[in-house]
Specification:
Two copies of one chain form a homodimer. By secondary structure, chain A is of the alpha+beta class. The first copy, chain A, has one domain: Winged helix-like DNA-binding domain superfamily/Winged helix DNA-binding domain (Arc Repressor Mutant, subunit A), CATH 1.10.10.10. Chain A starts with a helix and ends in a 5-residue tail after the last helix. At the A-B interface, helix 1 and helix 5 of A face helix 1 and helix 5 of B. Chain A binds a DNA duplex through helix 4.
Chain lengths: 111, 111
Amino acid sequence: MDLVTLYKCLGDPTRLRILNLLREGSLCVCQLQEALDESQVKMSKHLGYMKKRGLLVSERIANWNYYKINPVAHPMLKANMKALGSFAAKDDELASDLKRLREVKSQADCS
Amino acid sequence: MDLVTLYKCLGDPTRLRILNLLREGSLCVCQLQEALDESQVKMSKHLGYMKKRGLLVSERIANWNYYKINPVAHPMLKANMKALGSFAAKDDELASDLKRLREVKSQADCS
DNA sequence: GAGGAATATTCCTTTATCGGTATATTCTTT
DNA sequence: AAAGAATATACCGATAAAGGAATATTCCTC
């Protein structure tokens, strides 16, 4: 995966919000959808976009598709994800996304 | 300047090549143009794109317009520029861009 | 195998991006 | 003021992105 592709993936607000949540580990589409309060299509498309470019990997378990950051993705991704963490603390939207994710997770499991 | 905008700026091959050279400090359009062997319009447009978004600042001196990285740009930019440095050492194109820049600089001054 | 849930894909429209050609602007020099 | 150099802008065409609506796929359960 080349650097330009990596930055293109990062250069979209929805994808940044998704990646912010994926710092927490593997998540399925509906969890992301709920936490970000966005449409299913939008989620699926952005996840597909990043997977296609090697940023994410997915694993299907029953009806659910779990996405996570590709552990062998570009090293620059890890650095930016880490920086995103400290940025998220100061950013209202990213912070409340995380908060909502925790609520979503604490509710009934996807299964 | 927001994070998404920053990443959009980084998500283009020509702009990454420009930024790689601007790590060396302030450069005028014709120096960049020569070092990257690209058209004047292309250079000017990408520089304008980044300036408009707060990534670069410029200073006109006589006929020449010198661009440099905005010292007060997003902190994430600095981190990525630094990382770009180590990446450039391994990347053929970025490395030869730097080489050519040094040739350009060693030649007659712009003035 | 029929129905339902989770997800992906197709089609469409709108908007952004990129690069080129041609032209304009700005500044310097004569 | 005219010419030339360095740079910017306007306009155009091609391509990519982004999101919505509708539909398809996949897998589970009954």
